[in-house]
Amino acid sequence: MKRPYGRQQNEAFVFVGEAAMPFRYPPDRAEPPTLRSQADASCPGAVAFEEGADYLVDYERGTIRRTKRSRIPDGALHPLHGAVRFDHTNIDCSNRAYTVYADYRIAGTDDGETWATAHARDNRPRRRLGNGKKGGDAVYVVFGDSISAGGDASDEKYMYFNRFLQYVNERAMGGGVRLINRSVGGETSEGGWKRIREDVAALRPALVSIAYGMNDQNLYDTGLEVEPDAYAKHLRDMIACLREIPDCEIVLVTPCSPHPAWKHASGRSGEYADAVRRLSAECEVGVADVYAAWQRELAAGKTPNCLLLNHINHPNDYGHQIYYETLVDWFERR
Questions:
Q1: Helix (H, G, I), strand (E, B), or coil: what is residue 224?
Q2: Domains in the chain, please, with CATH?
Q3: Distance CA 320, CA 155 (A)
């Protein structure tokens, strides 16, 4: 997904020592980046860091790094820094204290809008969700695991589904859209398949986003929690159930990747994403390809710690933004 607009917002970094890290996009030296300890600058206790004193920007290379005497916490002091096949139990492994957020204008662009505000101004939906003739709100059901329950977003406003709901409602014609979240932390696709009829279909939704895979891919001594073939069958059966509801739109969300050094990371998340893409084509339903977007972030130089707040499998605010943007991308293409 290409970012065509001029301002990057809430890009996350976890710095290690004084090592340079690349910006996701080249920053414009005419409008220097700002860096703070919270995604929301108005959050009580948020610290605004100073260029030169706390961090240095190399505009030629498009990188940023801590200074030796920086107030920015050093990720090298994280208790699991450098650990391999780490066990997250009985330890505070959160990256919250080490994560900082940057806003900046992207070099070579001719406007100062963010991706989200530009879409809000320019784009219109091709059709609304729900009937609207009876005056009732259309229902959007969020269905998935702890990520879809909002896991580790700093505030409800940064949870990907709440941002997407706001986006859709800004474009709604007629009746609005209201959100009902039926996600359960720790759940796999098997659990979702078992309860979709009672917990989701009974609500007669106009839209359902289905986001499983993170827990399915978990690796234990006995093998994968849910094999990719079984995962695909569960999703296919969920789609069949929702197809009984007239005019219900379905979008499947591919999973992001867990921290590769976590002991339960199988390294096979891509297989689950492939299964989702095949089902999207086979069943003619939408797909929000978070996995592909996540891989682009990693390829551009983001580390897993820059994307995962709990150091395991929960996105930070920037990671939730990636989920949100992939859903908007689907919405505008559908």
A1: strand
A2: 1-122 (no CATH), 125-333 (3.40.50.1110)
A3: 11
List residues bridging with 145 in a β-sheet: none
Q: Are 215 and 188 in contact (CB under 8 A)?
A: yes
What DSSP state is assigned to residue 330?
H
Longest dimension (CA), the chain: 63
Cα gap 320→108, rounded to integer Å? 26
Give the pair of three-digit tokens for residue 177. Answer: 């859209």
Say if residues 311 and 80 touch (Cβ distance below 8 Å): yes
Buried b / exposed e over 76-109, threshold 16 CB at 10 Å, is: eebebeebeebebeeeebbbeebbbbbbbbbbeb
- Amino acid code (one letter) for 17: G
d(CA 273, CA 253): 8
Beta strands 207-211 and 138-144 are: parallel
85: left (phi over 0), alpha (psi -120 to 50) or beta: left
DSSP 30-57: TS--EEESSSSTTSTT--EE-BTTTEEE
- Close Cβ partners of 222 (under 8 Å, ≥ 6 residues apart): none
What is the DSSP code string of 137-156?
Answer: PEEEEEEESTTTTTTT-SSG
Residues with Cβ within 8 Å of 227's Cβ and at least 6 positions away in sequence, in order, are: none
Under DSSP, the state recorded for 96 is G
Q: Tell me the pLDDT tens digit for each residue of 192-203.
A: 999 999 999 999
Distance separating alpha carbons of residues 195 and 180, to the nearest angstrom: 15
Is the full-model pTM beyond 0.70? yes
163 neighbors 320 (Cβ within 8 angstroms): yes
CA distance 205 to 226: 27
User: For 73-129, what is each residue's pLDDT tens digit?
Assistant: 999 999 999 999 999 999 999 999 999 999 999 998 876 666 665 665 555 545 566
Residue type, 230: A
Calculate Rg over the CA atoms of the chain. 20
Torsion, CA 212, CA 217, CA 220, CA 226, rounded to 10: 70
Give the number of other Cβ atoms within 10 Å of residue 180's Cβ: 14
